[in-house]
Structure formats: structure tokens, C-alpha cells
Amino acid sequence: MKIGCPTEIKPQEFRVGMTPNAAREAVHHGHEVMIQAGAGIGAGFTDADYVDAGARIVDTAEEIFAGAEMVVKVKEPQAVERKMLREGQVLFTYLHLAPDPEQTKDLLASGCTAIAYETVTDARGGLPLLAPMSEVAGRLAPQSGSWALQKANGGSGVLMGGVPGVRPANVAIIGGGVVGTAAARVAVGMGANVTVLDRSVPRLSYLDDVFMGRLTTQYSDKGAVEDLLPRMDMVIGAVLIPGAAAPKLVSREQLGVMSPGSVLVDVAIDQGGCFETSKPTTHEDPIYEVDGIIHYCVANMPGAVARTSTIALGNATMPFMLALADKGWKQACAEDENLLNGLNVHAGQLTYYAVGKALGIDVISPQKVVKG
Ligand SMILES: NC(=O)C1=CN([C@@H]2O[C@H](COP(=O)(O)OP(=O)(O)OC[C@H]3O[C@@H](n4cnc5c(N)ncnc54)[C@H](O)[C@@H]3O)[C@@H](O)[C@H]2O)C=CC1
Ligand SMILES: CC(=O)C(=O)O
Ligand SMILES: [Mg+2]
């Protein structure tokens, strides 16, 4: 199969969809790999690294999209990229379609087959292609939030760990999955007073066991959030209902009970965000203020640490990328229900129920598509 990997064009996105090691494996499996010139530079990989791996360097994204049977990326295709997708072509990348009707419309119109990293599952019900980036974004969240808490950035001027005689920051993390757990580890390490909320009692038990009294767990309902908000210096949004638009858990009105200069870090922004006042921001201009509360809502947080993130993502995507290339998407998905769960769009039809529900578009069963 001809596999193509273009340079990411989302603002300040330095990751790349294929590492030289992934290219090497694909070539070893008999595939032809095209990498756009300079695509790996932001993650510390030179064109020569890819040539050593057996890949071919091509100058433009147009050549990649025109020549590749499968395009492997990191972020959702931007408008100019969507125009280059075509019927029969496989797109393997993050999509986050539920909050993004424009992208969904364009992918349906292109006729391509789009497999979303964030809805591929594993045997334990986890999300193996989202998890590595959630590990990164979770670790970054308290770091970015603590930067936003500084006075020069509009924050209240509270130090995460406090100092002897002065209390540490109070941090609430809503959602105790991969992002929430990683964020808790860093926030606890910085010395903050951390509360994690989740709807899953088994998850709260796990966190209680692992953190051994170094954080508080609380069942997540409206009352718990209302009770915590007035005391929190930072709230990290880390909820997920796979593929679906994130539930709104803090309203604009509730910002009024928080102390001025407190910070909301909405990691769930890629699924539309879990605070009513969230809107996506970029690394170039990451924060804004609403009613005295600082919001950090960067939708591609792992892009900030592109070297670590690219390698972690490449390790996770590699076996799925190879299966798609070796068997073709249809057979690969037919043989692996977890990969089939990644199928969001095929030949002008939506194949993921939570996306269809969020956008009011009819959905065809992915099982039917692979059998057809
Ligand atoms: N902004 C960025 O750059 C990045 C964003 N993300 C996003 O972060 C979000 C979280 O991802 P993961 O931690 O991997 O998901 P996960 O599935 O591991 O964890 C989500 C947790 O949210 C909980 N949850 C669901 N509804 C809830 C509610 N109403 N209240 C409290 N908890 C609730 C679930 O029980 C689960 O434990 C996703 O939207 C993901 O796409 C992930 C990586 C990078
Ligand atoms: C998961 C995601 O949206 C990212 O890594 O950018
Ligand atoms: Mg998007």
C-alpha cells in the first residue's frame, strides 16, 4: 500500500503522524511510504532519518494526498486538507467529529474512509490511541494551569504548593480517567490540595488506592461541583464519553461563585469542552478571561511537547497502521472489533453513533459497512 504522511498544519502543531521507526516497519512490510519534506522536524526527526528508514521524501502535501492510499496524520484534517481527500482513500488520525459539523460535512462529501484514533478501543474497554496523548495532556494540565494562575497572566497569584504557613492551591479534577489521573499525579507532586471527581465509583476506588490518601475522591454530580467551585483555585476538565460531545458541567453563572483569577483548564475541549464558557484556543494564544475566570482551552496540548508525544503516539498507532496497510481497511476492521470502533466515516456515510447523535445525522452500522 502507498502510505502518506503530510506535515501538520494546525497552528503550533509540531507532532508528526509517522516516526522513522513506523516508516521502517511499514517499508519492511512491503509498503511504500511518502513523507512530506520537513514533516518530522518539529519532533526532532530529519528527512534523512526517514530516508534511512526507506521512506521517500516528497515536497508538498498535494503530492501526499494525491498519491497515498492511506494518509496518516495527528490532528483532524484542516479545511485545505479536507479538499484533497478522495473516495476510496483511508484517513487515519484524530478527528473529534462530535463538536465539529464543518469537518464532518467535508469528510462525508469527500467519500473517504476515516478512522479516528480517539474511538479505537482495546480489550479492556480503554482507548489505546487516545491514552498516550491523554497521559501527556494530563501531565501538562496542572503545569499550564499554574502558569495561568500567575498574576502576569491574569491569575489570582496563588502558588500551587503554597509555602510553610500559607495554604497550597485547591485543585479539582473532573474526570478521573487517563487525563485526570496524570493531572492528579502532577498536581499532587506540585504540592496542591487535590480533589478528583468521577461518575465511576470503581474508578474512584482505584484512585483512592493508588494515591493512598494524597488526594480526595468525590462522586461527580451537580451538588459536588457546586459545593467545590467557591473553594477551587483551579478546575481541570477531564471528562469523556467516547466519541460524544462533552457534557457541560460548569455553567457561566457558576463562574460567579469562584474567586477572581481562578483558572479553568478544559482538556476535554477537543470534544467540545465541559465548561459552558470554553472555546478552543491555540498554543500561540492559550488563555482568555470570562467573568474574572481565566480559561486555558488548547485543543492540541501534546503538540507543545512534540518529541515525547510523537514517539508515544507512534508506538500506539503502529500496530493498527500496519494492520490497515497489510490487510486493507475493510479486512483489518472486519477482523478486529476494536479497530472497527475507530471507523467514523465511510463513503459519504457516518458510522459512529455518538457523533450522529451529537450532530443529528443518520448513522449506518459499521458492522454492516465491513460486511457489505
Ligand atoms: N486538549 C488536548 O490536547 C487533549 C484532550 N484530550 C481529551 O481529554 C478528555 C479525557 O480523556 P481521557 O482521560 O483519555 O478519557 P478517559 O475515558 O480515560 O476518562 C474520562 C473519565 O471521565 C469520566 N466521566 C464521564 N462523565 C463524567 C462526569 N459527568 N463527571 C465526572 N466524570 C465523568 C469517566 O468515568 C472517565 O473516568 C477527552 O475529551 C480527550 O479527548 C486528550 C488528550 C489531549
Ligand atoms: C487527543 C488530541 O486531540 C491531541 O492529542 O491533540
Ligand atoms: Mg477540532
Question: Could you walk me through the main structural features you see in this protein, from its secondary elements to its overall organization?
Answer:
With 372 residues, the protein is of the alpha/beta class. The chain has 2 domains: 2-119 and 306-371, Rossmann fold (3-Layer(aba) Sandwich); 131-299, Rossmann fold (3-Layer(aba) Sandwich), CATH 3.40.50. The chain has 15 helices and 15 strands. The strands form 2 sheets. An 8-stranded mixed sheet has the order 3-2-1-4-5-6-14-15, sandwiched between helices. It has a 7-stranded mixed sheet with strand order 9-8-7-10-11-13-12, with helices on one face. Strand 2 (32-36), helix 2 and strand 3 form a beta-alpha-beta unit. Helix 1 (20-28) runs parallel beside helix 11, helix 6 crosses helix 7 and helix 11 (306-327) crosses helix 12 (329-335). The mean pLDDT is 98. Magnesium ion binds next to loops.
CATH architecture label name of the largest domain: 3-Layer(aba) Sandwich
Integer average pLDDT = 98
According to CATH, the fold-level topology of the largest domain is Rossmann fold
Q: Give the number of helices.
A: 15
Secondary structure tally: strands:
15
H/E topology pattern? EHEHEHEHEHEHEHEHEHEHEEEHHHEEHH
How many domains comprise the coordinates? 2
Structural class: alpha/beta
Structure, briefly:
About 35% of the residues lie in helices and about 15% in strands.
Strands, helices and their partners?
Blueprint: E1 2-5, H1 20-28, E2 32-36, H2 47-52, E3 56-58, H3 61-67, E4 70-72, H4 79-82, E5 90-93, H5 101-110, E6 113-116, H6 131-148, E7 170-174, H7 178-189, E8 193-198, H8 201-211, E9 216-219, H9 222-228, E10 234-237, H10 252-255, E11 263-266, E12 287-290, E13 293-296, H11 306-327, H12 329-335, H13 337-340, E14 343-346, E15 349-350, H14 353-359, H15 366-371
Parallel strand pairs: 1-2, 1-4, 2-3, 4-5, 5-6, 7-8, 7-10, 8-9, 10-11, 11-13
Antiparallel strand pairs: 6-14, 12-13, 14-15
1,4-dihydronicotinamide adenine dinucleotide binds next to helix 6, helix 7 and strand 8.
